[in-house]
Design goal:
This protein is mainly α. The chain is built from 7 helices and 3 strands; from the N terminus they run ααβααββααα. Helix 1 crosses helix 2.
C-alpha cells in the first residue's frame, strides 16, 4: 500500500502525539492510517504501509479494539479481517473520552473514595482529606458532564462547543466592563 507524503506526515505526527494521548507511538500511527484511509485495511496492508512487523500490527489491532476505536469488517470472498474507524469524528472523540475515563479517572476516583472513607488521625490527614474531597468533587462533576456528552448527538456536541466559545467572549467583555 502506498502512502502519500501528506498522509505520511500526519501519520508520523499522530504517532508522536499518541504517547501524549495514552497510546504508544505505533498505536498512534496505526490509528492515523486507519482513520485517514477511506477503504478498510487488513493487518498486512497496515504492516506494509507503516513498515512495522506483522506481529506488532496484530498486537496494536488488539489494543485498538480494546479501546473500541476500530471496527472489524469482513469483505465477501476474502478471509482476512479488515479494520475501519468510525466515520463520525465525534464518535471517535466520545470513545476516547470514555476509554480514558475508564483507565484514568475511574481508578483515581476509587482511590479517592477510599481515602475519604478513612478516619483521619491527625490534622495533616484532615487537610489532605479535604483536598482529596475537592479533587474528588471536581472529578465527579467532570464524570457526570462527560456522561451527558456521551449521549448527545454530534450536531448537539458541535453546537455546545460553539456556544462555549461565545460564552467565553461574553465573559471577557463582562470582565472588561467590570474593570472600568
Amino acid at each position: 500500500m502506498k502512502v502519500t507524503p501528506m498522509t505520511q506526515s500526519l501519520i508520523l505526527h499522530f504517532g508522536e502525539m499518541g504517547s501524549r494521548w495514552g497510546l504508544n507511538r505505533t498505536l498512534g500511527q496505526m490509528y492515523a492510517l486507519i482513520v485517514l484511509t477511506e477503504a478498510p485495511l487488513n493487518a498486512d496492508q497496515i504492516s506494509d504501509a507503516l513498515q512495522i512487523s506483522r506481529s506488532n500490527v496484530s498486537m496494536g489491532l488488539k489494543e485498538l479494539k480494546a479501546w473500541n476505536l476500530i471496527k472489524l469488517q469482513h469483505i465477501q470472498g476474502d478471509r482476512k479481517e479488515y479494520f475501519t474507524a468510525p466515520e463520525d469524528i465525534w464518535e471517535i472523540a466520545r470513545t476516547l473520552v470514555i476509554e480514558r475515563r475508564k483507565r484514568e479517572l475511574d481508578p483515581t476516583l476509587t482511590t479517592m473514595r477510599d481515602a475519604l472513607m478513612a478516619e483521619p488521625t491527625n490534622s495533616t490527614d484532615e487537610y489532605a482529606q479535604q483536598r482529596v474531597k475537592e479533587m474528588h468533587d471536581l472529578m465527579e462533576m467532570f464524570t457526570l458532564w462527560s456522561n451527558e456528552l456521551q449521549n448527545m448527538s454530534s450536531e448537539k456536541l458541535s453546537a455546545l462547543l460553539k456556544l462555549g466559545e461565545g460564552i467565553s467572549k461574553i465573559l471577557d467583555v463582562k470582565d472588561k466592563l467590570l474593570m472600568k
